[in-house]
Amino acid sequence: MTTRRRFLSISAAAVAFPSLSSAAPVYTWQGVALGARATLRLAHPDAEAICARVATEISRLEDIFSLYRPDSSLMQLNSAGRLDPPPFELLECLSLAGAVHRASAGRFDPTIQPLWASYAEASVLGKLPTAEALSIAQAKTGWTHVHIDASAIVLQTSMALTLNGIAQGYIADRVAEMLTTEGLGTVLINTGEFRAVGTHPDGHPWPVKLAGGGEVPLAARALATSAPLGTTFDEAARVAHILDPRDGQPVKPVWREITISAPSAALADALSTTACLFQDRAAMAKFVQRFTDARIEAASKG
User: Fold this and answer.
1) Could you read off the pLDDT of 227-241 as tens digits, one per residue?
2) Cα separations (Å) of 45 from 17, 50, 92, 190, 294?
3) Could you read off the pLDDT of 161-183 as tens digits, one per residue?
4) Counting Cβ atoms within 10 Å, is residue 17 exposed (0-12), middle (13-18) or buried (19+)?
5) In angstroms, how far is CA 239 from the centroid of its own chain?
6) Residue 128: how many CB atoms within 10 A of its CB?
7) What is the spatial distance between Cα 210 and Cα 271, in angstroms, rounded to a whole number?
8) 146-148 and 153-155: which strand pairing?
9) For the segment 6-21, what is each residue's pLDDT rounded down to a tens digit?
10) H-run or E-run covering 29
11) CATH number for the domain including 278?
């Protein structure tokens, strides 16, 4: 089974750097964020110390959003069906998720975790979930059954959330906010989704080359790529990992990959994921345009 993390780190986007003088070398830090390869590129005399603080912040945010850390806030919520009081970051991320859910007529829905689990469990056995298993899983979904306020997040019985289509971008945004507060203005953050703080140290945008061809100049902006077949649930790599919450089925892989830029990486992340569920470019564009200054950079068909 191809992993989305590997697809993104290898082929979704690559950065090419103009040469710099030896007085301003670009320092590169590499780590992991929510299972994806993470990098930070900046030119600063204290770059190593700054990157160490970034690594600490990423780990703190993983303690909120990870589905693999048993004590994360998200895991506690999914286990107990209630989290009070929830961390601000989780509330903020879910607020944006709700906005994308409404704008997409339900195509983006973090409550699909039971459906995802059903496909993943069957995939381990080399199968697809039965119609009965999918029916049971889908009965546990539905954004309208999630209650969110500052005091508590409450899920209907047996529900569970996944933020895989938004949290990587959100982490990039939080790192960007942290570095901006510290006065940095020439940084490229990659947590699986890209977020540029200012420009490249040479004053030009960071040039991000797309796997499908072309290049996006990124300055004070975010970029995300989604590919329906980047992860698949079958050996033939034909059953897409992006699920349609409305019927519980994998999206038809009309698109090989879609790249969207936006003011925030969380928004770009959510929009690129959701855009894969649109069958034609015009409808996709109409959806994306509902969000200020968001745009489709590339959409290549499979």
Assistant:
1) 999 999 999 999 999
2) 19, 10, 33, 21, 34
3) 999 999 999 999 999 999 999 99
4) middle
5) 20
6) 16
7) 17
8) antiparallel
9) 333 323 344 444 433 3
10) strand 27-33
11) 3.10.520.10
Reading the block at residue 51, the tokens are 């990157």
Please tell me the distance from the alpha carbon of residue 39 to that of residue 229, in angstroms, as a whole number.
24
Instruction: Tell me the angle at which helices 113-124 and 131-138 cross, rounded to the nearest 10 degrees.
Output: 150
Q: What percent of the chain has pLDDT over 70?
A: 92
Domain count, the chain: 1
User: What residues contact 17, with CB distance under 8 A and at least 6 apart?
Assistant: 26, 41, 200, 207
Strand partners, 187: 42, 197
Burial classification of residue 28, based on how many CB atoms lie within 10 Å of its CB (0-12 exposed, 13-18 middle, 19 or more buried)? middle
Nearest C-alpha neighbor of 168 from the set 51, 28, 298, 4: 4
Q: Exposure of 172 by Cβ count < 10 A (0-12 exposed, 13-18 middle, 19+ buried)?
A: buried
Name the β-bridge partners of 223: 194, 261
What are the tokens at 200? 């490249």
Residue 160: which domain range?
A: 4-301
**Which two tokens mark 144?**
């309208």
DSSP, residue by residue, 211-276: TTS-EEEESS-EEEEE-GGGSBSSTTS-SBS-EETTTTEEPP--EEEEEEEESSHHHHHHHHHHHT
pLDDT of residue 112: 97
How many Cα atoms sit within 13 Å of 38 on the Cβ side? Answer: 23
Written as one letter, the residue type at 57 is: E
